[in-house]
Amino acid sequence: MQDPSGELTITGVVQREAWLQRAMPPAEQLGQDLWSLPVPIPDNPLRYVSVYAFGTGEGLVLIDAGWGAEESWRALRAGLESIGAAMADVRGVLVTHMHFDHVGLAGRVRQASGAWIAMHPADQAVFARSDYRSAERAVAVEAEFLRGLGASPAEATAAVGTAEQWEKFTTIALPDRLLTDGELADVPGWKLRAVHTPGHTPGHLCFVDERSRRLFSGDHVLPRITPNISVQRGAPPDPLGDYLDSLARTRDLDVDEVLPAHEWRFRGLPGRVDAITAHHERRLTELLDAIRRGPGSTPWQLAGELTWSRPWDQYSGQMRIFAVTETAAHAHLLERRGLVTASRTRPPAYTARAA
Questions:
Q1: Residue 83 and residue 97: Cα distance in Å, rounded?
Q2: Is 103 helix (H, G, I), strand (E, B) or coil?
Q3: What is the mean pLDDT of each run of 10 residues along the chain (355 residues)?
Q4: Residue 3 in contact with residue 252, Cβ under 8 Å?
Q5: Would you give the end-to-end CA distance of the chain in angstroms?
């Protein structure tokens, strides 16, 4: 099925039809010993994450595990049962990146089956920090971080929320194993190679199965939307630059099909990479224009001057945080390109350079 944009061919036709019907897609067998298992993300517009299950002859290895909620756990168990397996059959979980919809259930899978958990060292290092292991500490540090982007104390407190709301994120399981760029994952019968693609998170991993020429892209390349690329506390300072470099690196991989964590499977990786790259260039231009109109503005102020999928006054909480931190990531890249200057005050204030 050809996408209306003409940039890619949809191979996950059942997934897309379910999306259009606002329904959960079914579990699908994608090849011998390979399945896609949808796991819901409660109260989230992304709806579900696709967990990929590999048969190895010694059990199953999963790419990602799903959001850490009871509803998601029941769906993952049901998905395994639908392919004739059980949670006890899982011997490993390969985590594409540190976000809760991908790693939230990994610890529970390990408790139920003894499975190992593997991720990139850069994401493991974030998880291991004290401000990620204590809810009270996380709330305080995150609010301070937002004030550093221009939020008032009241705005920062309202956006971050409470320690109770953060508690679930501080119990995410730390990995047993680390995977770096170019390493083969421990998936017997497959040749699944890790590709480090920083940007969405510092340690985001894609996986290429060199035998079937499939790219398991996590959130790095999605067919319809672009992943959030944001500055993060304690993370590398130029995530958008890292992301665009990662896109360029993956554009010409020798793969036939892309299997993302969200939405639907597709062919046409180079065209989709080009479209995402062009989107960010347009976004950079829009932000530069906003800085020219309002020299000395902070990221918190600039975010409200940009075009979003809904009116700015409807953004609050985590959605507003994502918007502001994504705006900051674009501002950092404009600075790196020499198009704006940033004051070294706190928060930084951006001014366009003279042409």
A1: 25
A2: helix
A3: 60 97 96 97 94 96 97 98 97 97 98 98 94 94 96 95 93 95 97 98 98 97 96 90 98 97 98 97 98 97 95 92 97 96 91 83
A4: no
A5: 46
What is the C-alpha to C-alpha distance for residues 25 and 16, in angstroms, rounded to an integer?
8
H or E stretch at 206: strand 205-209
CA distances 238 to 249, 327, 333, Å, are 17, 12, 7
Which string of DSSP letters, residue by residue, matches 104-132?
A: TTHHHHHHHH--EEEE-HHHHHHHTSHHH
CB 87 within 8 A of CB 80: yes
Residue 301 CA from chain centroid, whole number: 25
Short-list 31, 35, 89, CA closest to 60: 89
What is the per-residue DSSP string for 272-334? HHHHHHHHHHHHHHHHHHHHHHSTTB-HHHHHTTS--SS-GGG--HHHHHHHHHHHHHHHHHH
272-300: pLDDT as tens digits: 999 999 999 999 999 999 999 999 999 99
Residues ≥6 apart with Cβ < 8 Å to 272: 7, 8, 221, 223, 258, 266
Q: What is the DSSP letter of 354?
A: P
Going from the C-alpha of 277 to that of each of 128, 157, 233, 281, the distances in angstroms are: 32, 34, 25, 6
Please indicate, yes or no, whether the overall pTM of this predicted structure exceeds 0.85.
yes
Q: Which of 224, 261, 271, 249 is nearest to 98 (CA)?
A: 261
Query: pLDDT, tens digit, for every residue of 214-224?
Result: 999 999 999 99
Tell me the two tokens of residue 95: 């985590």
